[in-house]
What we know:
single chain, mainly alpha
Amino acid sequence: TLRRTYLLLFYKEVIFNENEIDLKYTTLVVLFCMCLILTNTIGHKLFLFPFIHNPVPSAYLVYPFTFVLCDVVNEVYGNKKASYMVWLSFIMSLIVMCVIRAILLLPGHPYWVVKGNPWGFSSIGEYQNAFNAVFEINVTIVLASMTAYLLGQFLDIFIYRKIRKWTGNRLLWLRTNVSTITSQLVDTVVVSGIILFVGFRM
């Protein structure tokens, strides 16, 4: 039919046209989104790091890569595409958290309970509690992390472009280190401040 023909042309010429899509940029954006979503879904687990007695959030294993990827996109593709990547990842992360939130409210089915499972769960309630324990995210922590994320990433983009404007193509190490260290410091201060003063009322 005519409608099917138009759809096929749309998919072929717009979505899958390699001349219109930069696959390297797309890969960087996908990696960036993946790091942010992992940060917000598994990052709240605390683990024991060798030689460090204080608990370490799992987010530290993936979130720093967002600043590296942001600097790469900023350097190669410019601040507009870097900003687009930051906003896109923000929206994708919110969608994932909303979907998880909705799934947490769904009642469990008896078939969910596997007899003889290695975790020792024997009822729907135990499965549901375990599922909630893993995926339930405190609203204050989400607010803190996403606010700090936006401020930190856009500050990273701004500082990086300013230094590049002054230095040109020289001193790559300077703009990557200054922008990353400064933005990560701001990110840490903001997220800690919101959690302490809003979450714990300190």
